[in-house]
Amino acid sequence: MQGTMIWFNPDKGHGFIRTDEGERLQVDEGGFASGHELGDRCRGTKVIFERVEELEGPRAVQVSVVPLDAARRARSRRH
Fold first, then answer.
1. What is the pTM assigned to this prediction?
2. The CATH number of 2-78 is which of 3.10.129.10, 2.30.30.520, 3.30.390.50, 2.40.50.140?
3. For a pLDDT cut of 90, what percent of the chain falls above it?
4. Helix, strand, coil shares of the chain as percentages rounded to 5?
C-alpha cells in the first residue's frame, strides 16, 4: 500500500499514516523497514507499507520512504 505520513513522534515511538484510500493507520518505531526510520519532521512524506490487522486495530508495518524521484513520477502521471 501507499500513503503519506501524518506525523511521527520518535520520543514516544509512534505516529500515523494516511493511506491513499483515506484510512488512518498507526505505526510504531518497530514498524519501519531497516534503515527507513523517520524523525519528527516527516509530515507529508510519501511511504509504502503493509497493512496488518491486530487486536488494537489496523497497523502499518514494513514502512519505507518512497524515493523522491518515484513520488514525482507518480504525480506527473496523474495530470
1. 0.78
2. 2.40.50.140
3. 58
4. 20, 50, 35
